[in-house]
Fold each of these.
Amino acid sequence: MRGMPSPADMYESMFVPAIFRPLSRHVLALAAPKKGERVLDLACGTGIVARQVAPLVGAEGRVVALDLRPGMLAAASKLTVPYGAAIEWVEGDATRLDLAPGSFDLVVCQQGMQFFPDRAAAAAGMKRVLASGGRAVIACWRALEHHPLWSALAAAEMRHLAALGADASDATAPFALGDADELRGVLEGAGLRVVEVVERTIEVDFPAGGFVRDQYLAYAAVMPQFVADPAAFDAFVAAIERDSKDAIASFTRDGRVRCPMPTHIATAR
Ligand SMILES: C[S@@+](CC[C@H](N)C(=O)[O-])C[C@H]1O[C@@H](n2cnc3c(N)ncnc32)[C@H](O)[C@@H]1O
C-alpha cells in the first residue's frame, strides 16, 4: 500500500504501545524470568516480549524469538536492541518447532496460540523444547463477547468481509481460544501440568482519528488478506466507519478510543 506504513510497522507503532506492551507486563510478572535463563518467545510478532525479557535474563541468558511471518521479523529487526541477552530472530512455524529438545527454561506465547491451526502440535512442541522444571506462560484473549468494542466492530465486519476475500473466522481469530477450560485442555493434552489460569484486564487507549483504518492495517500484519486488494481495503474501511460510527463514538472521549481487553494467562510446567 503506497505511502502507508507496512502492516507490521503499524502493528508495532499502534498495537504494541496500546495493547501488547501493557499486556506483556502482566505476562512477565507471572513468568518471572531470572538471570541466565533461556527463553523462547513463541509467535513473537515484532518482539515486544523478547525485548522486555532480554534485560531480565541478562547477557548470560538466551532469548530466541520465533514467528511465522517474515514481515513481523523484519519490523522487529529495525527496532533498538535492548540491553541484556542478544535476541535470535527465527522464522518458523510454532506447530512444527525445529528447536533442540530441553533447550529452554521458559516459553512465553503472548496472543499467538489462538492463531495456530494445530494447537495440540504447538503445545507438544512447547513441552518438547522445555528443560526439566521449565515453564510455559500462554496468554489468549477471553472470548469476543467480553470485548465490547471489538464485538461492536465484528457486527459490522460480518457484512463486509467477503469483499476482502476474508471470512468471520479471520476477523474473530484473536478471540478464538477464549475459553479457559479449552486452553487448559490443549496444554494438558500435550502433557503439560497447568498450575493456574488467571484473568487480567488491560485498558487500551488509541487516538480516535483514523482509528478504524489504522487498526485494520495493523491487524493485516496477522491477517494479510485484509490488505491484499488496496481498493477493496479502502471500501471496507469506509463501510466499517459508516456502520460502526455510533458504536465507536460510545467508546470515545476527549479524542481517544478506550476499552477494556480481558485475557486469560495460563502457567504450565
Ligand atoms: C497477535 S500477534 C502477537 C505477537 C506477539 N506475541 C505480541 O505480543 O505482540 C500473533 C502472532 O502469531 C504469529 N503466528 C501465527 N501463526 C503462527 C505459527 N503457526 N507459527 C508462528 N507464529 C505464528 C503471527 O505471525 C503474529 O505475529
Amino acid sequence: MDTRSLGRSPLEVSVLAYGAWRLAGSEGKASIEGSAYGIRALHAAVDAGITFIDLADIYGGGRCEEIVGDALRQSPGLRQRLVIATKCGIRRSGDPTPQAPFRYDFSREHILRSVEVSLKRMGLHEIDLLMLHRPDYLMDPAEVAGVFVDLRQAGKVREFGVSNFTPSQVTALQKAFPHPLVVNQVEISLLQTATLDDGTLNQCLELGMSPMAWSPLGRGALVQDPGSLTDARQRRTAEALVAVARRLGTTPSVVALAWLLRHLSGIIPILGTCTPERIAEQALAATLPLSREDWYELLEASRGSRLP
Ligand SMILES: NC(=O)c1ccc[n+]([C@@H]2O[C@H](COP(=O)([O-])OP(=O)(O)OC[C@H]3O[C@@H](n4cnc5c(N)ncnc54)[C@H](OP(=O)(O)O)[C@@H]3O)[C@@H](O)[C@H]2O)c1
C-alpha cells in the first residue's frame, strides 16, 4: 500500500489506518475468544498493507491496547513495521473515586499517568503518536506543551497530535508547543462533511498536518443495503454509493473511502471493521482514483441538494 508522511514528522504511514476501537468485540465475543478476535483483525489489516494503528487508552476499557500488546508479543518483528498511535484525556465516571464524573482531563498528572499505563499495556518503550482525545474545556496550552516536551525528551512519545479539536483550539496549542502537531483526528465521511467547510481541513493543508478520518463509513451506515435504511440522508447517500460503485466495478465501501482519499489535505481514513474479508476489500480504496465528477455527485447526494 502507498505511504505518506505523517504531518511534518519523519514518520511514514500507510494511506489508510486501522482503528482498534472495536477489537475487544462485544462482551460476549471477547469473553469467548479472549484476544483472538482482535488479533485476527489486526493481522488482516497488516496483511492488507496497513502499517498505521489507531488506539486510545479507553478503547474496550483498556482491553484494546492489551490485545495489540498481545499481538506484538506473539509476532516478533511486527512492532518495527507499525506506527502505533494512542490517545488520552477522557476519563470515565468513577475514576478514580466513585463520585468522579465523566470528564476530560489534560492535566500534567493525568497525561503522564495515562502514557505510562498505555506503554505497559502494549509492552512498548515508546508510543509513536500520542493524541489528545477530545478538547478539555479547562486546557492550559502551556501545561500541555510542557508535558509533551518532557515526554519527547524522555523518549516515551515521538510525535503529538489532537483529536476533535476546532481550528482555533489547534492554533492555541500549537502556539505553545515548539514542535509541529502532526494530526487532527476528526469525524469525516459522506455523512459528516462539516470539516470541508469549518476550516478544519484547510488548517491541515495550511499547517501540513494530516487529518485522520474516524468512522469513515458512518459506523457502517453508508454501506448497508439502502432499502434497509430509514434515515433519508443515509439512504440517499448509500444509493449514490451503490450507483458509483457499479459504474466503477467496485464496492460502496471502497468508493466511500476513496471519496476521503481524493481530498488534497491527505485525509487518512481509519478502517473500523473487524471482519478480515471486509478489511481486505476496503484496503482496495488506496488504489481507486475518483474523478471530480464522481466526487461531487456523492457530495450532492449527501447534502440532498445541488451546491449553491
Ligand atoms: N477520535 C475519536 O473520537 C474517534 C471516535 C470514533 C472512532 N475513532 C476511530 O475510528 C476508527 C473507525 O471508526 P468506526 O469503527 O466507527 O468506522 P466505520 O468503518 O465507519 O464503521 C465500522 C462499523 O461498520 C461495520 N461495517 C464495515 N463495513 C461493513 C460492510 N461492508 N457491511 C456492513 N457493516 C460494515 C463494521 O462491522 P464489522 O466489524 O462487523 O465488519 C463496524 O461495526 C475506530 O476504530 C477508532 O480507531 C476515533
